[in-house]
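quick one before i forget lol
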Amino acid sequence: MNRRPPHADELRVLLKLVTEKDTAIVVPLLARSGITALACSDAASLATEMSRGVGTMVIAEELLDDPGFGPVLSWLQSQPPWSDLPVVIAARSDLESQAITQAIERLGNVTVLERPMRVSTFVSTVRSALAARRRQYQLRSTLDGLREADQRKTEFLATLAHELRNPLAPVRTALTIVSSQQVEPEKLRGLYAMMDRQVTHMVRLIDDLMEVSRISQGKITLRTATIALDGVVRDAVEVCRPLFAASNQTLFLDLPPTPCHVQGDAVRLTQVITNLLNNASKFTPPEGHIRVSMHSDDRFVRVEITDSGIGIPQDMLEAVFGMFVQIRGNARGEQAGLGVGLTLARGLVELHGGRVGVSSPGVDAGTTVTVELPLIPAPVLANTPSSTADEFNVGQGHRILVVDDNRDAADSLGQLFAAMGAEVSVAYGGKVALDHMATALPSIAFIDIGMPDMDGYELAARIRSVEAFSSVVLVALTGWGQAADRERILSSGFEHHLIKPADFQQLTRLLQLLT
């Protein structure tokens, strides 16, 4: 959140005393206490200086009767909600004068000191007034930050709605085509491929949002190992090559001949580089170029991603890492994203003990994002046998029960498991699931958590309470993915926890594990 400190003029003391001699004494007196004071010749000049900035105002009582005091009073009465300027009145000996009484009523935040004043009393009063004024500026800064954050959040929610509608539109169109006419197999495969791409995009949007939330709450757990960072970069580049090809963008890859190793989570770091490459492509015009280079010194390895895109204004170089910040520009494509890529990348890299920086010469001058990670010595390689597990027909031999009150979700998942060779049954609620299990015992049950008649937690408890069901492996397949959700799920009788929508590779690996 942006914090705007007060500038020097906003903490100065404006003076209008009775005589120039009084002013000549007070200004250096305050200066010796580290307080900047400015003497004003009359009420008009006082009003002018107030509009330029003021910390507190010290005026003689006589000024209240000055015909030119009107603009000063108007300024005080039109202050913004955060402001309540402290006013110190140097009064004549009669503290109960009508002018003082009226001043207190009209001016608001008034302190009255009777002349002649003790020096210590006067200085401490001015210090207190300035301290109160600083707190007002802090409130102003907080309000400005809240307004800015609210504006960003509003823009973000509008962008989120737009980004989710984009992939939904072609999916709905494809479903209309498939359901309303006979479609040739080749065209059908194209429609299915398109729907898969769009659903994958929606899942990525939601996953990015959830990841940022988990990072901010400290709920991300890294599965670290010694990895070659150049391999991570190559994997990310391969993921993004179709994006570059679609825009006829040229990619230059400059990696060192010797691998650079880091202690990290390969999946998470691939996610970081992929996000940054997606950003580079997104904000680079067609036929532009993107360069990925890597170099190291004795302590760190750095990956630099440089594009020839729209660039970043200098005043936004740090702000781009904010959660709801987006750079306004000609981002290509209909799916410009949510603007959380840099937030996510920085959070994941910092979890690895590294840092992410961004630089840009300015608008339309391209951008360079640098990922820096601690370098570690290369490991001693050992020969390990390659996996010979059969990746086809992994469902064979499994009796699978799918439990979900969403009929479309349950039926489609059941069809997928059947295509993988499993014997499948489907139940649209917890009570029906118990009836299924009593007649045909499954080996694995994939269970939704949020069901209305009997939620997944209660169903798991019922299953675990029956000795005859003890051999059934329970897998929670749910949209609840926070660390607390996972902990509750795994302590409720489930052996595994998958986040909706689980992809084919996740399901394949799990069935292989349970074979």
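fyi The radius of gyration is 34 Å.
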